Amino acid sequence: MLTRNRDYPLNATHRQSFSNPAFTHWHARLAGRKLEVSWKHERETMHEPDPAPARRACRGWAHFPHMADIGVRGFGVDIAQAFEQAALALTAVITDPDAVRPLQRVDLVCEAPDIELLLTDWLNAIVFEMATRRMLFSRFDVRIEGTRLRGQLHGEAVDQARHRPAAEVKGATMTELRVERSGKGCWRAQCIVDV
Fold it and tell me: What digits encode the pLDDT tens for the residues 25-35?
C-alpha cells in the first residue's frame, strides 16, 4: 500500500491495510489503478538520475487508507519537497501523474497561521485550480518562507480519454494532518482528502 522507501519500508502493519474493507472498496472503485501508480512512481523515483542522493533518498509519495476517503503523504528532504510530493499524491488519486504533461503553468500563493494548516491550504488551492480550470497537474515547485508558500503548478487540460479520471477530490481535511521530521531527517507532510 505505501510506496517503498528506504526510510519507510513496508511492514506487517502496511500489508494489513490491504485487507481494510474501505481501502479495498476505494481501490476496487478505481479499478486498482492507483495502487499501481504508487508503486510505479516509487520505482521511478528510486532509479532516476539525481545529483543529490540525499534529496532522492527522502523523496516520494504514498496513499494510505482512511474509512471511505484516502490519505495523501509526501516525503522530502525539506518541507517544500514534502509539500510537492503530497501534491503529486493528490494528483495520483485522480489519475496517473505520468500521463499528465506539464504544458501550462499556474502560480499560487498561500499563507496560514502554521505549517500544518499551510499544507491543507496548499492542497485545497490545487483542488480549486483543478476544478475551475479543468486541469490536472503533474509537476509542482514550492518555496516556503515561514508560513507563506509560493508555488507553481504545471499541467494540462483534462483529456477524459487519455487521463481517465478515477475520482474527484473535494478537498483536503485536517484529519490525520501532520507535517513532521522523521528520525532519519526526512520530512513527511500528510492529510486525508475527501473523495
Answer: 333 334 344 33
- Is 158 buried (19+), middle (13-18) or exposed (0-12) by CB count in 10 A? middle
| CA distance linking residue 148 with residue 118, whole number of Å | 8
CA angle 182, 183, 185 (to 5 degrees): 70
Mean pLDDT value of segment 157-186: 94
Q: Are 132 and 157 in contact, with CB atoms under 8 Å apart?
A: no
The HSE-up count of residue 7 (CA atoms within 13 Å, CB side) is: 22
Q: What is the DSSP letter of 51?
A: S
- CA distances to 70, 90, 146 from 171, rounded to whole Å, are 11, 10, 24
* 163/6 Cα distance (integer angstroms): 30
